[in-house]
Amino acid sequence: MIPDQLKTALAEHIAASITPREAAVTVMKELQAHYGWLTDEAVAEAAQLLGISPLQVEELATFYEMIYRRPVGKRVVHVCDSISCWAMGGESLLGQLAARLGIPVGGTDPEGMFTLLPCCCLGNCGDAPTMMVGDNLYGRLTLETALGVLEQERESAKM
Q1: How far apart are CA 28 and CA 25, in angstroms?
Q2: What are phi and psi of 102, to 5 degrees?
């Protein structure tokens, strides 16, 4: 159930939008932040707030890579697999990170800390290969620097 304060804030955001659908991504991201992922309950709540069907919310949710319809770790690691990052070793980096974390690509480590996902493009082609952890963008990565980033992210998650 959505806390009243969040429900009010979302309703105000929707009211300030030209159409309710315009606010859908923001609503889904806020509900995801509240629940940890976009649960079925959150889809129904978003639909009710937006005045659209749960199917329409589901369609939007599955379109966006950073809306998660299943549980994810505390930190979601998106490794870019666009052509620039691929050419600079992004695919290899993704595989090496999966091996180091002991999970398949798309999986979550046993601690529930990291979920590792490929991402279509992070818009940081000049600094390829690139990954994003949460809202933090990291570029010009090697396996060593990427592992260092994950260690920093692990420590910051403990705070």
Answers
A1: 5
A2: 70, 35
Q: Which residue has the tokens 């601690």?
A: 111
What per-residue confidence (pLDDT) applies to 42? 98
**Interval 66-115: pLDDT, tens:** 999 999 999 999 999 999 999 999 999 999 999 999 999 999 999 999 99
Per-residue tokens: 99 = 């091996």
> What residues contact residue 112 under an 8 Å CB cut-off, 6+ apart?
73, 74
The CATH superfamily of 75-158 is Glutaredoxin (3.40.30.10)
Q: How far is CA 65 from CA 8, 24, 117, 154, in A?
A: 27, 15, 9, 22
For the chain, the structural domain boundaries read 4-63, 75-158
pTM as predicted: 0.89
pLDDT digits (tens, 9 = 90+) for 22-64: 999 999 999 999 999 999 999 999 999 999 999 999 999 999 9
Q: Is 106 helix (H, G, I), strand (E, B) or coil?
A: coil
Evaluate whether the domain defined by 4-63 bears CATH number 1.10.10.
Answer: yes
